[in-house]
Amino acid sequence: MGLIQASRGTRDILPDEVVYWQQVETAARQILGRAAYREIRTPIFEQTSLFERGIGEATDIVGKEMYTFVDRGERSLTLRPEGTAGAVRAFIEHKLHTQGGVQRLWYTGAMFRYERPQAGRQRQFHQLGVEVLGSADPRADAEVIAIATDLLQTLGLKDCTLSLNSVGNPSDRQHYREALVAYFQPYQTQLDSDSQERLYRNPLRILDSKDPRTQEICQTAPSILDYLGPESQSHFQRVQQYLTDLGIAYQLNPCLVRGLDYYTHTAFEFQTENLGAQATVCGGGRYDGLVQELGGPETPAVGWAIGLERLILLLQQQAQVFSTQLDFYVVARGEVAEAQALCLAQKLRQQGFAIELDLSGSAFGKQLKRADRSGAPACLIIGDAEAEAKTVQLKWLKSGQQQVISQADLLTQTEALRQQLITVS
RNA sequence: GCGAGCGUAGCCAAGUGGUUAAGGCAGAGGAUUGUGAUUCCUCCAUUCGUGGGUUCGAUCCCCAUCGUUCGCCCCA
Prior knowledge:
Layout: H1 15-34, E1 38-39, E2 45-47, H2 48-55, H3 60-64, E3 67-70, E4 76-79, H4 84-93, E5 103-112, E6 124-133, H5 138-154, E7 160-166, H6 170-184, H7 193-201, H8 212-219, H9 230-245, E8 251-252, E9 264-272, E10 280-286, H10 290-293, E11 301-307, H11 308-317, E12 328-332, H12 335-350, E13 355-357, H13 364-374, E14 378-382, H14 384-389, E15 391-396, E16 402-406, H15 407-412, H16 414-424
Parallel strand pairs: 1-5, 7-8, 12-13, 12-14
Antiparallel strand pairs: 2-4, 3-4, 5-6, 6-11, 7-9, 9-10, 10-11, 14-15, 15-16
This protein binds one RNA strand of 76 nucleotides through helix 3, strand 6, strand 10, strand 11 and helix 11.
């Protein structure tokens, strides 16, 4: 019918759903604030080369998923596909390292990847992420994981498991990569076609193939954990020890590899079985080389990102209801009464009450029905008689009890009103 | 980028190559001109995502397109 719809892979978040988003944002602000993380807001688009260098030319994100365009000044720009590159660029550009010590940052916002939409996967989606810049201490790894755990738990997320791995430093990984290629080569023809292609380009990826025969072959493949040098091993051991000290359960998964080139040492994911193929709710790890790669000083770093659409899908599945709580629903009929209702509603709002004013002008019966459905514990009724006497009928919807009170008293006895609202609910 | 399924009102849906496209929820009005439940009555898709084709005739069959869902790839 020619109506313009939201573009493919984008969607509107309507008021009923926004309450979930606010719930997440409020919890995040509180938890991150307590841990001395500070919010950073970076641009939605960046120079294309930032992502090419930061994420890695060989990755799918850079290879086929970026929203890249040329602007009127002939610059190649890209809508950010993830948040880390921009945050690190800002860190370097504004020389935040000169502020000394460790920088703890967090961000939230829209990200863009050109992919086939699926449940829990869109072209415009939202992440909430943290980055700790300037610490190589394994306690930093443990801290970010603990904060993610805390946030997910606070939101009441169930059935979410933490997978943990180490991908070592670049030299460990190089040795491991060679060993893997050597192991897989004899099986080359038995691997699924995707994995055959990955054999030389990105052999680590073969490990998380979903093809049954490939998985079988992977069972006896060499483990990255046997290729970690002493330093990497010690780092990984300490991360695990700290998690145990924190009482955080995790599962070692030597097949866990991250998609982006910049990861080193710790890699982790929070996964669920309730999202179909999109199992990862939160993914992160350490990226000691990225800051330098982007032209900054040598700066170890660790962080994670939560996919908010996925998180909120899970919260909705758990049927948690967060409704905006109304205190009074105001109903009026008649010209004078309607004017009084308008003013009374506004004055009560100024006193801190949450008020919905019925604007329909329809019969009291209809207005009362709406009052009932609004979820407000009580309603205020003003008709001709009340308008004349400058009073209001205060009706408690649960009990049906009703009392007459003067409009002036209503505004001065706010403490008593508040008490009544509390006892009723 | 590849493979498969789906698209009938705000929501959930039945339906058939043949004049008027079930039903339910929600919504509006009324019975009740000042009080929430229940009940009852009335209204609520000139049209079946969009465009084209086949046909005397298409919501139904065919093609294309858009959207969506599931899987692969990949990722949050």
